[in-house]
Write a structure and sequence with these properties.
It is built from 27 helices and ten strands. The protein has 615 residues and is α/β, with parallel strands linked by helices. Helix 4 (33-59) runs parallel beside helix 8 (138-181), helix 6 (77-126) runs antiparallel to helix 8 and helix 9 packs parallel to helix 15.
Length: 615
């Protein structure tokens, strides 16, 4: 009944689904454990047979002859006992080594499956549409990969491997006990199974609840840690250390109970079954003889009990692994569900292999005349308001365009629609008056670069940050220096002792704000992007450096189109065309002088900036 319940359980079905995602080579490794486990089980049988003969010989009790084996031991008593002891020692060593080898194979397979699942989860995550990351917290996703999959490997995969391998030892040793003890052994085995089931079934609901609470606490705790570390400057300036410490304390104060319960409860069946088994052995073996009040009968039972006890000692480890594994597996449903969601994420049809993007600029017919958004509307998930409402704009290739407007007016959303990071609910992107084909989406994006005001730099060297996601051996150093020079960063990099190999720290913490922005801009220059979008990307630069960086972008030479999103007039003043946004629509467009004449908000902005500059 227990096995039927396991096979019909949601936990087992989820594991089978997850197992189906693994490569065929991993399944072969799993099945290769069968012969090893069989050898381990047979070695235990030989050890028990030898120890049984040894007990009987030492107690001078009659022995049931074993075919072939009895004739081999037809020696004088002193040689016979020497052979039995030597055989017992040799078989014990062999059995231990084969079990150690099986365990090593199990642990290796568990680690490999953990890696397989982690890589699959990350691959699926990275292939998701941009909207997915808007709706989900990155900290929760990273915790799911690092924590939940690790626990699936540790608390579900490994126990299954142990149980699978241990079943051979359990079956073979049980058969041996049945042969030796017959009815007594049958009662013993049934008693152990019933006792285990009663204990396990009573605690499994508590294990699941404890594991679910622990998962919730881990996600919340990880979120607080990430938020506090990312806000370290504000924390120091506002003396908020105690606030975050108390938040972490509130979240974690109940976690201790969930953690110790989740780890202790699976141990209960394992801890109780051993004394329960020993009690059953002596009740079955000694009590009948005690009622007869015959000391000779009790003496005759001693070798039998010793053999059964030795068999139970051999049976206990795989049984304990099975009992603990059963509780751990049944209690691991919350982690299984999280893992399955990660590896079963709907794959983005537009995600293609990076190898197909090599030199894709040469195979993709980049627009020669215009880039156009045609009657675009977009509404963010779980939002009732349209971020972009029936918007149309046409950009001439090789021109410099500016987007201006208040916060939340739709500038960045429009940029994301041009990059096709966001897919419009209505309308489409036209390149030279032709809709962008789905099969060309990634190639289009490979021609684009997007530099934001807030961006992430890797904890690595300047070189690796500029040549982002490129193997070191494939980096063109000359192009890197050209990009650095265009970003007006050459003098600074040359002054560093390690130059391009200088580590910039986590998210560029060793750099100033302006230097970080210039690294990000140099990254875009290195890619030789044909559509470059700067979203407040020069806000940390002084006016002189900003002007130099902007002038370094040779639009005609690179057939490059530049879109600048900015609030400073000095940034947009030289644009070929400026689009003014408000509530997801374009309310005005034209060059700087034209907007100064027809846009009231633009007039106010110009007046205010002039007043500030004049003091």
């Amino acid at each position: 009944m227990a096995l039927i319940k396991i096979f019909n359980s949601k936990t087992f079905n989820l594991f089978i689904k997850i197992f189906s995602f693994l490569p065929k080579s991993r399944r072969k490794e799993f099945y290769s454990l069968i012969p090893l486990a069989l050898i381990a089980g047979l070695s235990e049988i030989f050890v028990l047979t030898t120890v049984s003969r040894l007990f009987n010989f030492l107690s001078d009790q009659p022995r049931v002859p074993i075919p072939f084996f009895s004739n081999l031991l037809d020696f004088e008593p002193k040689y016979k006992i020497l052979i039995l002891i030597s055989s017992f020692i040799f078989l014990s060593w062999f059995s231990s080594f084969i079990k150690l080898f099986v365990r090593a194979k199990q642990l290796k397979l568990k680690a490999t499956i953990w890696r397989d699942l982690s890589e699959l989860a990350l691959k699926n995550l990275l292939s998701q549409e941009y909207e997915f990351f808007i709706e989900n917290k990155n900290t929760d996703l990273s915790t799911s990969i690092l924590v939940s999959i690790d626990r699936v490997a540790e608390n579900i995969v490994l126990p299954i491997l142990k149980t699978f391998s241990g079943m051979f030892s359990i079956i073979l040793i049980s058969i041996a006990i049945l042969v030796i003890a017959k009815i007594s052994a049958l009662i013993l085995i049934l008693g152990l199974i019933i006792g285990f089931l009663l204990i396990s079934l009573s605690i499994i609901p508590y294990i699941r609840y404890a594991n679910k609470k622990r998962l919730e606490v881990e996600l919340a705790s990880n979120n607080i840690i990430n938020e506090s570390l990312n806000s370290i400057i504000d924390i120091k300036l506002t003396n908020s250390e105690i606030f975050f410490k108390e938040q972490f304390h509130k979240v974690g104060k109940n976690s201790v109970q969930s953690i110790w319960k989740g780890e202790t409860l699976p141990e209960i069946p394992r801890a109780l079954i051993e004394p329960f088994g020993i009690t059953l052995i002596f009740i079955i073996g000694i009590l009948p003889s005690l009622f007869n009040s015959d000391i000779d009968e009790i003496a005759k039972v001693i070798p039998f009990l010793a053999t059964i006890a030795a068999a139970c000692l051999k049976l206990t480890p795989p049984l304990q692994d099975t009992f603990k594994g059963y509780s751990s597996i049944r209690g691991g449903l919350p982690d299984l569900e999280v893992t399955y969601k990660l590896i079963n994420l709907t794959k983005n049809k537009n995600a293609i292999n990076n190898s197909k993007l090599i030199d894709s600029k040469d195979y993709f017919l980049y627009p020669k005349r215009s880039i156009e958004l045609n009657k675009i509307s977009y509404q963010y998930p779980n939002s009732r308001i349209k971020a972009i409402n029936n918007l149309s704009l046409k950009i001439n290739v090789g021109s410099k365009i500016a987007f201006v407007g208040g916060t939340g007016s739709g500038k960045t959303t429009t940029a994301n629609l041009l990059l096709q990071l966001l897919k419009p609910n209505k309308g489409n992107l036209l390149l030279d008056n032709l809709p962008l084909k789905q099969e060309d989406l990634k190639k289009w994006q490979n021609n684009c670069a997007y530099v934001q005001q807030s961006f992430h730099l890797n904890d690595s060297s300047i070189l690796e940050n500029i040549a982002f996601a490129t193997d070191r051996g494939q980096i063109d150093i000359d192009d890197v220096w050209k990009a650095i020079e265009s970003a007006k960063l050459k003098e600074y990099v040359e002054s560093l002792p390690n130059a391009l190999d200088t580590n910039i720290g986590e998210s560029g913490i060793k750099l100033s704000g302006g230097q970080r922005q210039r690294i990000a801009i140099a990254r875009a220059f290195y890619r030789k992007s044909r559509l470059l979008i700067l979203d407040e990307a020069t806000s940390s630069l002084d006016n002189k450096t900003e002007s130099e960086v902007m002038n370094s972008i040779d639009l005609k030479k690179n057939n490059c189109t530049l879109i600048v999103i900015a609030h400073r007039l000095s940034t947009v003043i030289n644009s070929d065309k400026i689009y003014e946004f408000d509530k997801g629509k374009i309310i005005n467009s034209g060059n700087f002088e034209e907007l100064c004449k027809k846009s009231e908000s633009f007039k106010d902005l110009k007046f205010l900036e002039n007043k500030i500059l004049k003091g």
